Structures
1.
Amino acid sequence: MDDTPYNRQSLSPRLMALPEKLELTIRQRVAFYLDDTSTPAGRAINGAIALLILVSSALFVAETYELSAQTQQLLRWADWTILSLFTLEYGLRLWSAERRVRYGLSFYAIADLIAILPFWLGFLDSRFIRLLRWLRILRLVRFVEDRALLGAVTTQDGLIFVRILFTLVAIIFIYSGLIFQVEHVANPEGFQTLLDAVYFAVVTMTTVGFGDVTPISETGRGLTVLMILTGIALIPTQIGNLIQQLGQVNQSIRQDCQSCGLSVHQRDARFCRRCGAALAETPPDLE
């Protein structure tokens, strides 16, 4: 593919740092903007993708309730439209990747592939394919790691809290969807809606276990065991990580990086821990 000329002044500092003689191809531009949040175009693209993931997850929740045939058909069309866009995005990411095999085996690529599998294998109408839909929320992981897309979350401790909160919400959402998908058919009285499954997942993961809602299928009981193990391993670990990270934040100061904008660094830091740019002279401690 021929190189395409570009205006360096319109690009972010990440691209302006490239050699002057280098001209970006269309493939390189696509790869950059699919991962960029430092330019308006990059933030718009990635923000739209994150919004579509949330809307797609909301469609799953809506489908668990009794709706009219017309509304169900509308939700299905909306879901297929979103899946078509996800398929286009996955194809662009794979096409623009420098090392396609390495990217295809990465966590992000596998999460993207799981998200679009129902679009390509929906004609099988198998229970396994339907279960994969609930894993689509994992695609939000790449966005939770980016401060620029979180907007109001500017402090490091706030970012840590958002990551932990997302982890807990994602685990509860996935387990609730899986247990509902399995138990709604076998035990419709106990798991009438997704809210029943959410209630069961929360009391199970926190090891409270009131026992008023219980699974009766073998698959449901297997998921329950996994939920208990996840609750025991995840919740104390996440709380411990939060306490540890907050302790590190207390040893930090506000020092804006002129290159990438990261605002929190260690007191003795001379270079930005995100982009490696040299920091200005550390301001005196005002405490």
2.
Amino acid sequence: MLNTPDFPDEVPIAVSPGKAARLAGLGRTKLYQALNAGVLPSCKIGSRRLNRVAEIEAWLKRLEASERGPSR
């Protein structure tokens, strides 16, 4: 899991798009494409955009499921 230097036992629930891209193993451009397409939710607090780690995981699961195609 992802730990922060200040709180090594704490797992963040939201991260910046740059860190979200690294967590997903993608470049920032691909992540921003998903954000702009509305397939990856995010929120903006002031000037800062945040992605919930749970939403990143859910998005990746949806991508994985769509690659497999419909269940038989």
